[in-house]
Amino acid sequence: MTDAYSRRVLACYVTFDPPSYRSAMMAFRLCVQRYGRLPQELVVDQGPEFGSVYFQSLLTRCLVTQLDRPPQQPRFGSVVERLFGTATTQLLNQLRGNTQASKTPRHMTREVDPKRLAVWTLERFAPRLSEYVHEVYDQMDHPALGQSPREAYAQGMTLSGSRSHRLIPYSEDFLMLTRPSTETGTVKIHPSRGIKVNGLHYWHESMRLADQSGKSVPVRYEPFDMGFVYAYFGGQWIECIADTFAHVHGRSEREWNLILDEWREQQRQHNQKRITMNGPLLAQFLQKLQGDEALLLQRRLDLEEQAQREAILLKRPKTPEPTLSAPPLLTPMYNWLFLVFGEPLGKFVRLTCSS
User: Fold this and answer.
1) Are 99 and 114 contained in the same domain?
2) Which residue from 1, 111, 16 is spatially nearest to 64, judged by alpha carbons?
3) Over the stretch 303-354, which tens digit does the pLDDT of each residue have?
4) 226, burial (CB in 10 Å: exposed 0-12, middle 13-18, buried 19+)
5) Residue 280 near residue 199, CB atoms below 8 Å
6) First to last CA, the chain
7) How far apart are CA 309 and CA 175, in angstroms?
8) How many domains in the chain?
9) Of the residues 230, 246, 262, which one is the last residue of a structural domain?
10) What pTM value is reported for the model?
11) What is the pLDDT of residues 232-275, one digit of tens each?
12) Domain membership flag for residue 70
């Protein structure tokens, strides 16, 4: 996301996933996290992710006007396209493993094959790209402006005013606005099973109350962790936990959809016409699905993106557990018994000695 007036990069998000509403959601979060506001007008192309109900409702909540770029008119996107070219020339082409040599495969030898030279992972590359756009490119003189994007942005804020009424605090309330909902937007509370979202059952102790049984409540979920959903009842958003939390925690919505597609296909092969979601059955299926290539690939990509997602979602890294100090030295006789039996009063183990 860029500012057309100052050419300043407002948000930069890198992912392995194809373009989707999830990428747009993360770009909005990054923009508010860094600048505390969103642009008043947003120019987008004809991508399907920009025409979804979720994207339109998110812009409406944040008071952002959407402007569609005319199709087959590349000059309307010249600002962002020029930025792509500059970043490719100044940064990407200078990294080890870049694909410049693959433009002419006949001139490429084994020693310069980008597949053999690639060393950058997404976890390492994403913060470096963010540092480039916010610290290096942001302070370089732009030929169209005669000054740096940072100076042009500050000048524009001085001329037009800071407009403090458009500031958006980066808090849990804003994160809740950016979370998607289901197709209907509401779910019904079952007194013993809780609520059902995306084929999974979620539960919270407040659902045991008699006045909540059978009530339809608004619901939202985090597309990068299917272990939690958020239901609105009792005047607040309540975090609900999946019944198969151990198997779905940390799995993204895209990975979960791949799992459901594979599961439905197996059910059809067994001639089951009616396909219903079952938590324990899906948990057993997940254990058998560990060898599926598409699932493993998506799981690996999600793990590489986990670090930058946690930074956006206000999650602190876990502190390492304290390591235990080495036990005191034992007597020679007790040491010999420890080696023979593996541990005091433990099971006999076979030992081999080498000179």
Assistant:
1) yes
2) 1
3) 777 777 777 776 654 444 444 444 444 333 333 333 333 344 344 334 444 4
4) buried
5) no
6) 65
7) 12
8) 3
9) 246
10) 0.73
11) 988 899 999 998 888 888 888 888 888 778 777 777 776 665 55
12) yes
